Amino acid sequence: MTLAITTQLDCKGLACPMPIVKTAQAMKTLRPGERIEVLATDRGALKDFVAWAKATGNRLIEQTQEGEVLHFVLEKKGVTL
Amino acid sequence: MPARVIVLGGGVGGTLAANLISKELGAEAKVTVVDATGMHLYQPGFLYVALDQANALWLTRDERTLLRKQVDLIVDQATMIDAVAQTVTLARSGTLSYDYLVLATGSRLDRDAVPGYADTHDFYSLDGALRLREALRRFEGGRILLGVAGIPYKCPPAPVEFVLMAEEYLRKRGVRENSSVTLLSPLNRAFTIESASKLVQPIFDRRGIGLTTFFNVESVDAKARTVTSLEGETAEYDLLILVPPHKGAAVVMDSGLGDAGGWIPTDRNTLAHTAHERIFAIGDATDLPISKSGSTAHFEAPIVASRIASFIRGTAPKAVYGGRVMCFLETGGGRATSLRFDYAHPPVPPQPSRLWHWAKWIFNRAYWVTVPQGRVG
Fold first, then answer.
1. Taking a C-beta distance cutoff of 8 angstroms, is the pair B309, B24 a contact?
2. Residue B255 Cα, gap to closest chain A Cα (Å)
């Protein structure tokens, strides 16, 4: 079963590495399998989220762009409910 | 009657803005600086003190000696700002009224936000730098870790500079062979700016400096001598140095003029408070997504001074801030590089050389007689 997005995080206007740090903080509050949606405008986030997900084992589920706003959906690692 | 300009904070930005407004407007303005200590600190020197390359003497000056004689200095703590009544309340000296207010209130260290912080060291205050210097002098080998415990923090290159300079320090002391030096980076590279990261990575490799990626420090266990990250990793240390979490000034937070972290919502070009046109912000105090550094404050102060002078004279303000920042980055071995950038242009750092090291050294020495007075642009 796929869980709905439980948390939203607005990192628009924040410079690197703030989106990653804020996401890492927010991820702490999630349970395994829960998802977070992150919005960012820092172009560096494109590469950073891919690398971060790979390094931490959390899954990058979705990555889209609308105008200048980058949109990521990440899922906390662990047993999916 | 002269216009009343109050500047809160006697650091780089506040001192320079006050001097420039006074110089520009002469008798048309009464400029008052309010500073809690009356001592001006040259914070870039902390790094050199911690690594035993400089003593603490040259890092402080009496703020009065750096201000034009026409500028008043009140040594007191501002406790409340009323942006509607246009007043500032001080802890001991009553309430002052302003026509224009400059918030150059800097940032505060929030060491208590990290569980176990007491067992760690930092070079983000003079006391911290002196304590770290003692710890390094006694250090006989082991694992040195440097981690970042909160973002944003002052002087983004400082962690990289520290590990590069510490590695050199250990070699000179003859304890490098039984030691390791590791940077715990919040990202997947040594430095936020990619071009600078690419420049320093080969130096890390050549000198055997470790890099642990995506390690945002969350807590310290003093008994076990371990540090744990938000990402859930744990690392063991013998000497742990942290960049402490930073937050905005108490007076900004208490007056409802900042965001959750105490940073002032600031227009990126005019440097005015986004909700109060007669309040401007400079340096660390702003919420702008650029470096918190003396150089940022140095480049912002003339913009704020020029805009305030225009408003007081009733002319249209022309000066705008383009995000200009300039940092030196020491790479050890008497070499350094420089990072120069603005909102539109990312930095292209030159290869580290002796030239930039000497440029930084000269800047450090000449600071007291140039920057606060507005003699270098």
1. yes
2. 24
